[in-house]
Amino acid sequence: MSASFEDIIAQVKALPVKKLSVCVAQDKNVLEACRVALDRGVASPILYGDEDKIRAIADENGISLDGMKICDEKNDDEAALKAVKAVHDGEADMLMKGELPTKSFLKSVLNKEVGLRTGKTLSHVCIFEIPKYKRLLFLTDVAFLPYPTLEDKEQIINYTVKVANACGVKMPKVAPLAAVEVVNPKMPVTVEAAQLTQWNEEGRIKGCIVDGPLSMDLALEPEAAQHKEGALNRKIVGDADILLFPDIHAGNLVYKTIVHMVDNVENGNILMGTKAPVVLTSRSDSVEVKVNSIAVAAVVAENLKSNPW
Amino acid sequence: MSASFEDIIAQVKALPVKKLSVCVAQDKNVLEACRVALDRGVASPILYGDEDKIRAIADENGISLDGMKICDEKNDDEAALKAVKAVHDGEADMLMKGELPTKSFLKSVLNKEVGLRTGKTLSHVCIFEIPKYKRLLFLTDVAFLPYPTLEDKEQIINYTVKVANACGVKMPKVAPLAAVEVVNPKMPVTVEAAQLTQWNEEGRIKGCIVDGPLSMDLALEPEAAQHKEGALNRKIVGDADILLFPDIHAGNLVYKTIVHMVDNVENGNILMGTKAPVVLTSRSDSVEVKVNSIAVAAVVAENLKSNPW
Predict the structure, then answer these.
(1) Coil, strand, or helix at residue B205?
(2) What residues 91-130 of chain B have any CB closer than 8 A to a CB of chain A?
(3) A32–chain B nearest CA distance, Å
(4) Taking residues A147-174, what's their average pLDDT?
(5) Is B134 within 8 Å of chain A by CB?
(6) Closest partner residue to B248 among A179, A220, A262, by Cβ?
(7) Segment B216-219 long-range contacts (CB within 8 Å, at least 24 positions apart)
């Protein structure tokens, strides 16, 4: 079972090298991440974008482009479409956003002819490695889908279970979170959490153990289960793998609390529901976060070959 | 400006001693907190409850009851009512929940004849001292009011500003939080956040600086403001004092993430909207949390004398 990004990267190295198609690659941070990914055997980058700008940024920052293929295209939208098409056509295994707005990037990803649509809801999973917590933690959705419906949540669980499986977590424990751990009809999110749990018990949601509604302490802290009545009979007692959030506000606020307040945290993230894995990191994400995300995309790409969405 | 619970306790010591009326005091943790509060000059406890049980628990655990008044009442509901009435009649300055269910406790607090109702919405504020963050952080509402309306949020801000003032924070910065820092009509919480900001600019919400919607990174992390376009022109750039949450799920999940994942955190909390401050800690809260909460109640009690809700 992988418990760190180092474990995931070790897993990736044992696989055939995955090709990473980069949309509009003229960005220092993106080029650095590509260099590290190539050097560490995480991926083989193909850079779509303005070759002059790419080479200038690489020179300025002492980033070697040795071993990377560059496909020159000055127009950003065209470069994005070509990068997406490479994945669509199977010339690359996964896609990464470079120096273009998220909206333009997604427009290319969802292009009807050369894009990566599956007709399914797109959603985002964030993976954390937190020293205090003994396992990888998968959070969803903290960045993409604002108000998932009950059906969206079922889909999101399925996606995240696949990502967890790809990262080596075999039968993940899924905690549909709320402020409380009991169903309260005045709190719709607790009713939905109970429904998801029932669907899991009935075999409709497979490959995982769902137990909700669950409060954050019961999801993460084994000791908390000792203090609360009935908590020790739950399926999750401080050992959740996947945290399913009520909505994007709860998810994003927790995500950023962890990033900014918890020491020595590592993270990575991936967009789900597309034909091939998509790395959708933001400008402010570090090189490390980008490399971690590429590693996750690589194990997911391998996994999708035998188990499409 | 207070930046720690030690500062608040130092403030309390300089005030006339506040009397703390304890509802159903027969609980080890509660008695320990009362002992520490008395020894540290934070409050003078009056224990309502079953005197035999109180003395037995104190004996068993080596807790001295010297200097505490005990009012013997075997019936829990009666003990709760008598404890509340003592505050109602001005014989005590603040109230604390002991060994009885929250529902029964609140029933007494809201009793029409001897209770502490003001006719206003009740709400909860949680105060954190976090080593990484240079100031006290006030979170609301993470535990009591599930889905505050826009008007509730206005009221909650007013309450929390009073608590912050009492703790020595003169002109607190209030961040109405969301997943994003711009208004998006598809996310009602961002529209409400903008309205609260406007009410503050128009002088309807006073004594504080409101700036929302705000994401968690811009609220807490000065560096994040450097990376985001337009963020440096905001009124809050990583220096929020008060975090206003969209709803109880977002608030509670963040609150418990901080408690369980961030090292060396201290916290305390208080119920607002009653005639006198109410300490509503839960069974699982440590003695330290209870003492911190009593200290906050004491400074708020002093403040309410000159500035009622």
Answers:
(1) coil
(2) 130
(3) 18
(4) 97
(5) no
(6) A179
(7) B216/A252, B216/A253, B216/A256, B216/A257, B216/A260, B216/B177, B216/B254, B217/A256, B217/A259, B217/A260, B218/B175, B218/B181, B219/B175, B219/B177, B219/B243
User: Does the predicted interface ipTM exceed a cut of 0.90?
Assistant: yes
Which single residue is written with the structure tokens 């590592």?
Answer: A266
The answer to whether residue A24 scores a pLDDT higher than 70 is: yes
Q: Does B253 sit within 8 Å of A216, measured CB to CB?
A: yes
* Phi then psi dihedrals of residue B301, to 5 deg: -60, -45
Tens of pLDDT, residues A180-202: 999 999 999 999 999 999 999 99
* A221 close contact with B: CB closer than 8 A: yes
Asked if A261 and B263 come within 8 Å (Cβ–Cβ), the reply is no
pLDDT in tens, A27-83: 999 999 999 999 999 999 999 999 999 999 999 999 999 999 999 999 999 999 999
Q: What value does the mean pLDDT take over residues B5-15? A: 96
CA distance B146 to chain A (A): 8
CA distances from A263 to A115, B261, B264 (A): 39, 9, 12
Cβ atoms of A210 and A174 within 8 Å: the answer is yes
Mean pLDDT for B47-73 is 98
Residue A203, token pair as written in the block: 């075999």
For residue A38, the Cα-to-chain-centroid distance in whole angstroms is: 20
Q: What is the mean pLDDT of residues B109-138?
A: 95
Q: By the CB < 8 Å criterion, does A250 face chain B?
A: yes
- pTM for this predicted structure: 0.96
pLDDT > 80? residue B309 = no
Residue A44 is encoded by which pair of tokens?
A: 């083989």
Predicted confidence at residue B283, as pLDDT, reads 82
Residue type at B267 in one-letter notation: N
Q: Identify whether the C-beta of residue A306 lies closer than 8 Å to the C-beta of residue A166.
A: no
Say how many CB pairs under 8 Å bridge A and B.
113
Nearest to B260 among A216, A248, A256 (CB): A216
- State how far the Cα of B5 lies from the Cα of A235, in Å rounded to an integer: 38
Structure confidence at residue A1 (pLDDT): 55
Q: Does A177 touch chain B (CB under 8 A)?
A: yes
**Inter-chain contact B227–A283, Cβ cutoff 8 Å?**
yes
Average pLDDT over residues A124-150: 96
Average pLDDT of the segment spanning B156-162: 96
Nearest Cβ partner of A253 from B254, B256, B263? Answer: B254
Per-residue pLDDT for B167 more than 60? yes
Angstroms from A242 CA to nearest CA on chain B: 14
Q: Is the predicted pLDDT of residue B144 greater than 90, yes or no? A: yes
Q: Which residues of B touch A228 (CB under 8 A)?
A: 284
H-run or E-run covering A11? helix A5-13
Angle A160-B228-B238 (CA atoms, 0-180°, nearest 5)? 90
Maximal CA-CA distance, chain B:
65
Name which of A44, A54, A48 is nearest A80 in CA terms: A48
Say whether residue A298 is in contact with chain B using an 8 A CB cutoff: no
Q: Order of strands, edge to edge, in the sheet holding B266-272?
A: B69-72, B44-49, B19-23, B94-97, B278-279, B266-272, B123-129, B137-140, B242-244, B173-176, B209-210
